[in-house]
Design a protein that fits this description.
This is D-3-phosphoglycerate dehydrogenase. This protein is of the alpha/beta class. About 35% of the residues lie in helices and about 20% in strands. It has three domains: about 110 residues, Rossmann fold, CATH 3.40.50; about 190 residues, NAD(P)-binding Rossmann-like Domain (Rossmann fold, 3-Layer(aba) Sandwich); about 80 residues, Alpha-Beta Plaits (2-Layer Sandwich). The structure holds nicotinamide-adenine-dinucleotide and (2R)-2-hydroxypentanedioic acid.
Length: about 400
């Protein structure tokens, strides 16, 4: 009788809806579950993972999106779990919504629509009421006005370039802009090196920075005091970048004009001249598919080969498939690690076919390919010896 050995499927836990186009990339060796039971990978969008107990067997987390402030990065690093994101995959979707709302708020479209919905035939013919009431909603064209873009990454650079095409003057601020993004950016964007100049010059300000300890509440009363009193501020990055009570006061006192945000909270909903949008920046079919495909591929590639692409806490390493066995080790970025690891391998009389080491800030990732396979008891011994090396965080044996 012929026996079929059924390989156990790997489990990927999904914490938010992930486009099926992305999940299809996992193939039949994987099962997708909302349950943490045995999960080796997690796919997540905006779910807040800070109080979330990480599954015991977890190998990696992939964020289908850009911002990773909902993930406990430090905890993941200390446990040797890479966190991936999908840079640029939703940038076009966000850019389109930023430009849409920039024009719509400038033309008082949101207020106008709300007013139109309140009209009643009891007060006379609707067309007559429209024509007599529309004068309250005379807006401004954006052509010839100045847009200040804070953060010139994947989204900010796209917004800046397209705003120029719409006839705006664009001022950009980003002290850490990457070389790739600097190449993307039109030379007509005027870069400034002090943010106050941007605040002073801009008729519209759009925020495209990550939320971190340096950017939290960066828009506060000290910032608002430099701005034009009719400035429109667009926040499609994160709510916490803006100081709530300072914002409320600035809007009440008409020190700023309007606040358009993709991140409404209890306070924002009651603020004068605030326009709440229910986090729709990345909610296009194309963007959801792009993010899901990129996140799934990166997660699967890491689980199966140890390759690292677009991780926020691991160094990038592109690896070709291995023939027999591969060891990946994640450790502190200290001297002599690779030689300690090769010594352990050679003690077991194993030939090494390839090895490499990459670092990122204070951590590093070493990969060693074996020229032959070894049985599971030797694998266990190698893993346990490597885990004893000073500075070692995690070890995986693949194959
Ligand atoms: N509304 C949405 O649905 C949505 C979608 C995607 C991204 N986002 C948010 O937008 C943010 C930006 O996304 P992205 O794809 O452009 O990311 P990105 O990493 O490509 O760009 C961020 C840019 O901000 C710059 N920066 C960092 N700190 C800064 C500071 N203090 N001052 C000025 N610039 C600074 C960086 O140098 C980088 O160029 C994300 O972190 C996320 O929070 C929101
Ligand atoms: O998943 C989403 O809908 C939003 C994602 C967005 O906030 C991001 O940071 O990429």
């Amino acid at each position: 009788m012929e026996m079929t050995v059924v390989e156990k499927q790997k489990t990927i836990q999904v914490l938010n809806p992930i486009s099926q186009k992305g999940l299809d990339y996992l193939g039949e060796d994987y099962q997708v579950s909302e349950d943490a039971q045995g999960a080796e990978g997690i796919l997540v969008r905006s779910y807040n993972m800070h109080q979330f107990p990480l599954p015991e067997n977890l190998k990696a987390i992939a964020r289908a999106g850009a911002g990773v402030n909902n993930i406990p990065i430090e905890e993941c690093t200390s446990k040797g779990i890479p966190v991936f994101n999908t840079p640029g995959a939703n940038a076009n979707a966000v850019k389109e919504l930023v430009l849409t709302t920039l024009i719509a708020s400038s033309r008082q479209l949101f207020d106008g629509i709300e007013w139109a919905k309140t009209l009643s035939p009891n007060n006379g013919p609707i067309p007559k009421q429209v024509e007599s009431g529309k004068k309250q909603f005379v807006g401004k064209e954006i052509r010839g006005k100045t847009l200040g873009v804070i953060g010139l990454g994947a989204i900010g650079a796209k917004v800046a370039n397209d705003a120029l095409e719409l006839g705006m003057n664009v001022v950009g601020f980003d002290p850490f802009v990457s070389v790739d993004m600097a190449w993307e950016l039109s030379r007509s964007v005027r870069r400034v090196y002090d943010i106050e100049t941007l605040y002073q010059d801009a008729d519209y300000i759009t925020l495209h920075v990550p939320l971190n300890d340096k950017t939290r509440t960066m828009l506060n009363k000290d910032a608002f005091q430099f701005m034009k009193s009719d400035v429109h501020i667009l926040n499609f990055s994160r709510g916490e970048l803006v100081h709530n009570s300072d914002l409320k006061e600035a809007l009440e006192m008409e020190n700023i004009g309007k606040y358009i945000t993709d991140f409404p909270n209890e306070d924002v909903l009651t603020m004068k001249n605030a326009i709440p949008i229910p986090h729709l920046g990345a909610s296009s079919q194309e963007s959801e598919e792009n993010c899901a495909i990129m996140a799934t591929q990166q997660l699967k590639d890491y689980i199966e080969t140890g390759s690292v692409k677009n991780s926020v806490n691991f160094p990038d390493v592109t690896l070709s498939p291995f023939r027999h066995m591969r060891i990946t080790a994640f450790h502190n970025n200290v001297p002599n690690m690779l030689s300690q690891l090769t010594q352990i391998v050679s003690k077991f009389g194993i030939n090494i076919s390839e090895m490499m080491n990459r670092n990122k800030e204070n951590v590093a990732y070493s990969v060693i390919d074996f020229e032959s396979s070894v049985d599971s008891s030797i694998q266990e011994q190698i893993e346990s010896e490597m885990m004893k090396v000073n500075g070692m965080i995690s070890v995986r044996i693949l194959g």
